[in-house]
Each structure stands twice: as structure tokens, then as C-alpha cells.
Specification:
homodimer, Arc Repressor Mutant, subunit A, DNA-binding
DNA sequence: ACAAAAATGCAAATCGTTTGCAAGTCTCAT
DNA sequence: ATGAGACTTGCAAACGATTTGCATTTTTGT
């Protein structure tokens, strides 16, 4: 979904194109990692839309398929823009909290096995990983940057 | 972890073996699917331990590695016993909510690719799937049971 | 059995998220 | 451009899950 598609996307679902939605979409597409509702709210231009509006719009954007919810076992959920229909997974550093994307995913390859094992059709999945990022790894020359 | 190991497990972490913990462990090991704190509380024998105690003990059991938290995008988390150190994933029916286990997992096979792509070591991951269970699938003879 | 450590009940507090409602904004046909 | 209706927003209150303080009870190790 290119950035400009947002208008059509919303119209198709009879949702309005509002300043809050435009801004949230901009914030999400500019972020390198999924953001929490609070983080999004903090980044809004003044006058800031209400936090409740952020929540409502995150749901609206999810409804039309522009945004995805990410659970990294924190106290809150994170949200990210779905670009080009691509779906990605994440890996979070257990030491410093850094979050990177994982584009590698072989779940589709597992689909057959899963459907055979469970009898379910596989419609959706989420995969989130936890590990230690390069700068937090011990016993290294620490040559690589953060 | 066999059912009897719970005592040693707890002792090793200087946690007491209490009635509430024993009961929660029994309830979790007897359940075919992960349970919410409320579900667990409901299944407690009278006199019921307090719900706060259930929460505290679920955390304690996680701390010692006996219990795992599962997020199926519901309003609450679910918890399940970790048996024999095995880790499983789940698939939940998007129509009726039925939850089945998936023992099939090739994430370990992805580990190399993920580590190469992100530079992170892969310490942990979770994978949860959503689909449609046999009894909820349309265009079928409906021959198979629930 | 005893003293110290850990766990519990209970109620209040937190915290993320949702909701009702009146007022404001957007959309679309005229 | 304009007006009515549809949709959205702000605000504060409500919610529900989870956590916490503290006095009391249970468990542990000796
Ligand atoms: Mn995937
Ligand atoms: Mn796995
Ligand atoms: Zn790190
Ligand atoms: Zn089903």
C-alpha cells in the first residue's frame, strides 16, 4: 500500500480521511519499529489529537488493513504500518530492547504440515522472536556498532 | 518436567510449595488448552485461593520455568504448563475459538537465517496461528466431528 | 517447635484501553 | 459552494486485567 493509497483505502470502507489518521499514518510509516499508542500520541503535531482518538484510529486503520498490531510481551501493544502488503516479524533484544525486523519467514512452508496436523486452515499467524542484539552480545570484540 | 518435579523446581528457586501452587499446577496440567487466570481461579477447589494469588503464582511458576504465557490476541493472557521442556505453539479457530496445539515448528531451522539477517542470537520465540477449524469450515460434508 | 522467609487475603491502586455523549469535521449529492 | 447526514473527536467516566501495600498466615530450615 503506497502512502497515497490511504485515502482510497479508507473511502472504500466508508471511513473519513481525517487529520489524525493522516498523521498517525505518517508517524507509523516513518518509524523503523512498531510504536505504542502513547509513543504515537507523543509524536503528534500540536494541537494533538486525543489519546482516545489515537486508539480509535489505530483500530480503524487495522480494520481497513493498513495497520498491524504487534505483541512483544510488553505492557502494551505496538502498531506498525503494513507496507506493500508485506508482513514482517520482529526480534527484540532481551538486554536493551532494540527491535529489528525479520523478513525471513517460512511459516508458509509449514502451512501444509500445520493443516495436516490440526485440520485447521491457516489464515494468519504471528511470530515474534527474542534474542540478544550484536551490541549486547558478550565475548565479542565489540567492533560492530549499536 | 514430570508432575512431581514441581517441588524440587520450586525449592531450587527458594519458592515454597503451597496448596495454591500445587492446585494451579494440577489445573494447568489437566487442561488441554492454555487457561486464563480467571478460568484457573474458577477451577480452584474451595476454599479458593484469591485471584491475586493466582496471578502471583502464575508469575512464580513462570519464573521457575514451569509455566508459559500465551497471547492469542484476547483481552487476557493464557497460561499453560511446560511439560517435558517441550515448547508448543497454538492455532485458534477464528470462528468458534477452539484452540489446538501445534507441535510442528521449524523456527529452529530458521534460526541461522534469522541470526544472519539480524545479527541477533535467537534465544526465544513465539508463534501463534489463526485459522478455521474443521467443524467451522464451509463447503464441506460436515462429516467430521467438532 | 522456633525464628525467619515466603505466601496469602483483601482492598485499593494502576494502567492500558474503551465508551457515552455532545460538539466538531468530513463526504457527497445538489 | 452548500447543507444534511455520516463519521469523527474531545473529554471524562467507565472498564477490565493485573499489580500492590500491608497485616496475617503458612512454609521452610534448623
Ligand atoms: Mn510470517
Ligand atoms: Mn517453536
Ligand atoms: Zn541489545
Ligand atoms: Zn471453529
Amino acid at each position: 500500500m503506497a502512502a497515497m493509497d490511504i485515502a482510497n483505502h479508507l473511502r472504500r470502507h466508508k471511513k473519513s480521511l481525517t487529520r489524525a489518521r493522516t498523521e498517525i499514518w505518517r508517524i507509523l510509516t516513518q518509524s523503523e519499529k512498531p510504536l505504542s499508542p502513547n509513543e504515537i500520541h507523543r509524536r503528534l503535531n500540536t494541537p494533538k489529537a486525543n489519546l482516545a482518538t489515537v486508539y480509535r484510529n489505530l483500530r480503524a486503520l487495522q480494520d481497513v488493513g493498513l495497520v498491524r498490531e504487534i505483541d512483544l510481551r510488553e505492557a502494551f501493544k505496538r502498531y506498525e504500518a503494513i507496507l506493500a502488503g508485506r508482513h514482517v516479524h520482529h526480534i527484540m533484544c532481551q538486554v536493551c530492547g532494540r527491535i529489528d525486523k525479520i523478513r525471513h519467514c517460512m511459516i508458509q512452508d509449514m502451512a501444509n504440515a500445520i493443516q495436516k496436523e490440526s485440520g485447521f486452515t491457516l489464515e494468519d499467524h504471528y511470530l515474534e522472536c527474542f534474542g540478544i542484539c550484536p551490541s549486547c552480545q558478550p565475548h565479542k570484540t565489540e567492533a560492530q556498532g549499536a
